[in-house]
Amino acid sequence: MRAKHQHSVRIPSLDGLRALAIALVLFGHSIEMHPPLYLKWTGAYAEFGVRIFFVLSGFLITTLLVEELEVTGRISLKKFYLRRVFRIFPASYTYILAIALLSASGVVALHARDLLHAVTYTANYDPNRSWYIGHLWSLSVEEQFYLLWPLTLFLAGRKRGMMIAALALAAAPAFRVVEMLLAPGAHFEIGVRFETAADSLATGCLLALLRGWLSARREYIRLLSSRLFVLVPIVTLLLVLPFYRLRWRFTLGYGLMNVGIALCLDWCMRNSTGAIGKVLNWRPVAFVGVLSYSLYLWQQPFLDRYSHSFLNRFPLSIALAFAAALASHYLVEKPFLRIKKRFESERVKTAVVASEMRQDQLSESRVAGKAAARVASTPAIASHDGGKDGAPPERDLPQTDEM
């Protein structure tokens, strides 16, 4: 019964989207290791996978914080930071320790300040980071977000927090352009430093803060339920291709990608019982999403583009990355997640899922109501096509599931 209850408080489709994000990272890094298959754009999809993680983090963390504020009347910064410590530190410091030991034994080579930046979560400000520590730039961005955003909501409140998130959304492109003009040769670091990546996180934050309001907007629900919505993921994926100028990518390109990811995220949550939703919530896919944190940490040494070792050959490299991730998840993550649960509120987690269900039901009722209104507004046609004894024919009206 306990396991079933814990499963029930997970927001539908989020684990499946994490699985998609880590699959993009693995794809991008794997292809980079095989020059015959490598194209200019393939590595960009690894970065795109990280961008999905950022939007997801912004959404989920904000949802939990706002629900805690509404349920308990306050945000406990102490409990939040303790939850993050038990969630993030054990697996990442285990990985860093393993790499440090391999470096000390001469198996891998690290740069002078790699370990310092790794343990302080400042790798995103180290342009000379080595491959084995290089991917920790994204964890550094996340940790900087975890440090700043809850404190912002705690001090500013929900409405002012929304304004600050909107300001970050506008400021990040400006930072990217300024840094591109000041250091045109270092453009590969733009989108890595926190101030140039914050808009991805802010987009997720704004989705969480505005989702209730958006659920009541007919135009927004009409967009999500339109057949043309398929263009949103298509255009978003096309924007990943680095075939347009940097100035456009750093301004409109990244911003449109973030919005596209947020729209797809919301669509997936609202359509968790459809065909795509069933795939995202299929147990094997969802499990890859649960495993994604450890998998992201441990894929790096096995997908080393600079190594010629047989351990880095596909598909053995992927198998070894999954094996290391499984060991990390079960031996490191899970024991500390049990400690983390002591600082979680079941009331808040249950309220989050209940809120998601209410918003989804509101969207469904609006779509169903609109369709029913269309049917009700055509009585003359019905009487003309009258059935037996002149009665209007029976029609299959759309149903809404209020459960």
Query: What general outline do the C-alpha atoms trace?
Result: globular
- The first-to-last residue Cα distance is 21 Å
How helical, in percent, are the residues? over 70%
Query: What amount of the residues lies in strands?
Result: under 5%
How many structural domains? 1
Structural class: mainly alpha
| Number of DSSP E strands | 0
In brief, what are we looking at here?
This protein has helices at 2-8, 14-32, 42-72, 77-104, 114-119, 131-134, 136-182, 194-215, 218-225, 231-240, 246-270, 275-280, 283-302, 316-340, 346-376, 379-384. With 403 residues, the chain is an all-alpha fold. Residues 1-8 and 370-403 have low confidence and may be disordered.
Question: What can you see in these coordinates?
Answer:
The model is unreliable at about 1-10 and about 370-403 (pLDDT under 50). The chain has 16 helices and no strands. It is mainly alpha-helical. It has one domain (about 1-380). The chain starts with a helix and ends in a 19-residue tail after the last helix. Helix content is about 75%, strand content about 0%. The radius of gyration is 23 Å and the shape is globular.
